[in-house]
Design a protein that fits this description.
By secondary structure, the protein is α+β, with helices and mostly antiparallel strands. It folds into 2 domains: about 140 residues, Rossmann fold, CATH 3.40.50.10070; about 140 residues, Porin (Beta Barrel), CATH 2.40.160.20. Helix content is about 20%, strand content about 50%. The strands form 3 sheets. The chain has an 8-stranded antiparallel barrel. A hairpin with a 6-residue loop joins strand 12 and strand 13. Helix 2 crosses helix 4. The longest helix is centred in the first third of the chain and has 18 residues. The protein is rod-shaped and about 115 Å long. It starts with a helix and ends with a strand. About 25% of the residues are buried.
Length: about 325
């Protein structure tokens, strides 16, 4: 095709396309106070949100000049409709009833007697923060002249709709580890053992169930077994978090080191734990604990505390 003809056709095609494309509807939008105590600032904000949403739907709201935000007298309204070529008139109102916020959007037309209602719909919210979610649905229902319930399953936006209930995050974990520890007395010896765990962990808390066995069969001839339950608070939510916890349970101590420490005991045991949990964001985790356990009973006439350093894996 001749380049000269191409240069002629392109502007002609553009002109034809522009002439055949539908023009946006012109509309007037006003805010109407239902009572003198209505909050004007909030109502103006609602007016802006409705105006923007009407624009998204292809309806150009006429603003500027002497056109007010709030509903004017009928004669001024007639003048603007005639001068601007407006085809639709919308009126939005905002009232507060107790804990509820009610927004009404109404389309009207001018008649000989005044303003007649064409279609009206309202929606209710329990929070001002939800209004920007509510208004697009309300505008669509009014401009399409369909009930608001057709655009949403319910006419009220509540916290349950906009902010779904989130279950508290928690998971069950099993664990096992080894222990290096010592009894807290004169001339103690190093003992060692195993630790079995069953935990339920949430974001900042962990419930602990433990079975502990540690011994030093050579030097102290010490045998210590305990089952306990408790809770720990995790200070951080990241991959690594220090924690502090406390447990209570029952246990037994058997010792045959010397005449001064020869005997056994059974009863309640309380403990305090400081530690760090590593790799919280992974399936396999590492737990480092420093545990101080204090039996509430005596062994050979002595209260004997047990200190343990526990290295455990959780999964």
């Amino acid at each position: 095709m001749n380049r000269f003809l191409v240069l002629i056709y392109i502007p002609v095609i553009i002109l034809i396309a522009n002439s055949t494309s539908p023009a946006a509807e012109k509309a007037l939008l006003f805010a109407e106070k239902k009572a003198e105590e209505d909050k004007s600032k909030e109502l103006e904000n609602v007016w802006v949100l409705v105006k923007n949403e009407l624009g998204k739907q292809g309806i150009a709201v006429q603003v500027g000049g002497d056109i007010p935000v709030f509903l004017p007298d009928l004669e001024s309204l007639r003048q603007w409709v005639n001068n601007l070529g407006v085809t639709r008139i919308f009126i939005v109102s905002y009232i507060v009833l107790g804990q509820k916020i009610i927004i009404t959007l109404e389309e009207k037309q001018i008649s000989e007697t005044g303003l007649d209602s064409v279609f009206s719909e309202r929606a209710t919210s329990t929070s001002i923060e939800d209004i920007d979610i509510l208004i697009p649905k309300l505008v669509q229902s009014v401009i399409n002249r369909k009930p608001y319930v057709d655009t949403e399953s319910q006419t009220t936006i509540t916290e349950k709709e906009e902010k779904p209930i989130k279950k508290k995050f928690g998971e069950f974990l099993w664990g096992a580890g080894f222990i290096l520890g010592s009894s807290i007395k004169s001339n103690p010896g190093l003992n060692y053992g195993v630790n079995l765990k069953f935990n339920y962990e949430m974001t900042h808390a962990r419930l602990d169930f433990n079975i502990t066995f540690q011994a030093n069969p050579i030097r102290e001839k010490l045998y210590f077994v305990m089952g306990d339950a408790g809770a720990a608070y995790l200070f951080m939510t990241g991959n690594i978090s220090p924690f502090i916890g406390g447990n209570v349970g029952f246990g037994a101590i058997f010792m045959n080191e010397s005449p001064d420490y020869d005997g056994h005991g059974f009863g309640a045991i309380g403990s305090v734990t400081l530690g760090v949990e590593f790799f919280r964001l992974y399936t396999l985790r590492l737990l480092l604990e420093f545990k101080f356990a204090m039996p509430m009973f005596k062994v050979a006439g002595h209260y004997m505390a047990i200190f343990s350093t526990i290295f455990s894996f959780l999964w």
